Amino acid sequence: MESEPLVRPCSRNNMNYTAEDGSSILGEGGGGDMMGRHSVGSAGAINGEKGDGNATILERFHEDALQQVGHGKMQLVIFVVCGLALAADLSELMALIMSSKSAQFEFCVDASQKSWLVGATLLGMGIGSIFWGSLGDRLGRKKTLVYCLGVGSIFSVASAIMPTEGLFITARIFSGFGLGGVMPLVITYFNEFIQEKRRRLATTVLFLWWPIGAAYVVMISWFILPSTGFHLNEELKEHFSAWRRLLLAAWAPSLLSLIAFIFMPEAPLNLLQNGRDAESLSIYKQLHKCNKGSKTTFCFSEIEIPSPMPMSTINSPRNVLGDLYRALDSFRSSILLMWTENRRRLTLSLSLIWLMAAVGQGSLSSWVISHQATLRDWTFDNDAKTFDDNLINNTSMTADLINVRYRNCVFQDVTLENMLMNHVKFENCSFHHVNFTNVKTSHVLFIHSELTDCFLVDTNLGRSDFKDCVLEDITYQGLDPECHLIPDFNMHLSNDVIDSGLPVAGIFIGSLFTIVLVILCSPPRLIVVSILLILSASISVGLTIWKYDPIWALVGHTFLNGFVAASWSLMMTMADKYPTRTRSSVLGLCLAGGRVGSFLGVGLFGTTIKGNAAPVFSSVFLLLSSCLALRGESRSSTT
């Protein structure tokens, strides 16, 4: 329920804030400091429930100030800058997803190791969410955002030039560590400039920037990445590959938001919580002037601001060790505030719920995308041209062989030169006096075959391409590949754009739909709608299994990611149950569970469990369990 303004719109008299029951909130003794400002709360209340009264009074004062400031040009600028930071969060992840195939072949890592190319960033984000979220409650939202964006940007650029897999993963962990603080800090920073009655809707609209960052990467990848597997194989020979250039291009939103935040004001409510009244008052006046011009006057003065009690009573020397000690104590205080007796259950539930939801959403999305690729491969293989019991002798073959099967065939005195072999299988075949010269191969396999007196010159055929074969008098000259991984020449960038673009479109359309839901529904009703969305998503996924259809895939991802957006809006509502001085810490903890859950869902669950039914039903079960648990927490938190 929204509280009424505590003061008249423009009163120059000394403000006397009172609690809802009419009692004074200025403390039992009614004391004030030497400037006449009144202190609220009691000493030592930071780790107890009395500290919440202090936070509540400052928040109500902040709401009064925002009513005078109004909403205008300054909020629009803040919306764009915060949106760029949110876009940077997903653009970095999407760039890794789009470039992971190319990086896999350049670093020569198999599918199990490939998940770490993306998973390292997710793990770093999980750690960074907790660290930067807690730091932002003490150091300031804007200042901490500049630091975390700076760390993320430095290591994002560094990862693009790392020559080995180990160095690349290390750089991505630190890059994720920096970027992990972006989302919790951006949301709390943005909310402190929006009035409470508009906050939930404004946050949902801000969330639209998240898929915009991913859409930006999908579009530029079309112009940067090689269009086919053959071009990828040739392009990997360059010193600075295309996927590295994509990582640099995806860095643009981070750089722009970093520069913009340097010139943005600090969040005023956070300054009030930390006793920096003069700075907060200056920001209120700056907002008022930007929104309403100089014709009207901001009516509050520093003497009218309720002064909070000191956040810490620790006496430590004013040196580096003392500053470090105070910083650690502030971090400890933020953690303790999340685990007080009346918030312990909510904090634990929110973290576990987002862990479960992220596992389900990540595994279901990754499995649907991989299944679509499997269906395309299955359709391609069914169209293969087959030759049985043929004798091929005294000839030269120069035409490309694509999607061909040879069974029980004999090749005698044959030359295969200057050609491309893609998805070719030789089964129970015999090769006598056969020369393979300048032959580029992809997914070529010899099974139960015999090769005698053959020459392999300037070809990438390796030992791994011969399974249960008899090899006698084989001569290798030229390209015997050092890496056994060869890109699939039938791989097309357009398919990757579709597979990655569908979830992005789903997030955007689902977020638009959620804006309508936020306007029409209360938080408990949002959970009921979320359950219906997941059930609809499971149906559309089932139709995708039955027959590959991009339309049904778009429908499924729309419903699925609509759930994510609706749940995010609800979580923001429940984060308001915490004091302002610990909200970014709470969001950081919840998002840490989400990042780790995404890693488990995409990297482990999505790759180890096979079959059609298992991932679908398991993922839907996780998502439904999260919805039901979240609904229970919504009810308990409103009582």
Automatic annotation (TrEMBL):
The UniProt record lists the keyword Protein biosynthesis: no
UniProt xrefs under PROSITE patterns: MFS (PS50850), SUGAR_TRANSPORT_2 (PS00217)
Topology versus the membrane: Multi-pass membrane protein
Protein keywords: Membrane, Transmembrane, Transmembrane helix, Transport
Alphabetical list of Pfam families matching this protein: LD_SV2, MFS_1
Subcellular location per the Swiss-Prot or TrEMBL entry: Membrane
One Gene Ontology cellular component: membrane
Transmembrane residue ranges: 76-96, 116-133, 145-163, 169-190, 202-225, 245-264, 346-369, 500-519, 526-545, 551-574, 586-606, 612-630
Keyword set includes rRNA processing: no
UniProt domain Major facilitator superfamily (MFS) profile: residue ranges: 75-637
Gene3D superfamilies: E3 ubiquitin-protein ligase SopA (2.160.20.80), MFS general substrate transporter like domains (1.20.1250.20)
One MF annotation (Gene Ontology) recorded for this entry: transmembrane transporter activity
Official protein name in the record: Synaptic vesicle glycoprotein 2B
Organism from which the protein derives: Folsomia candida
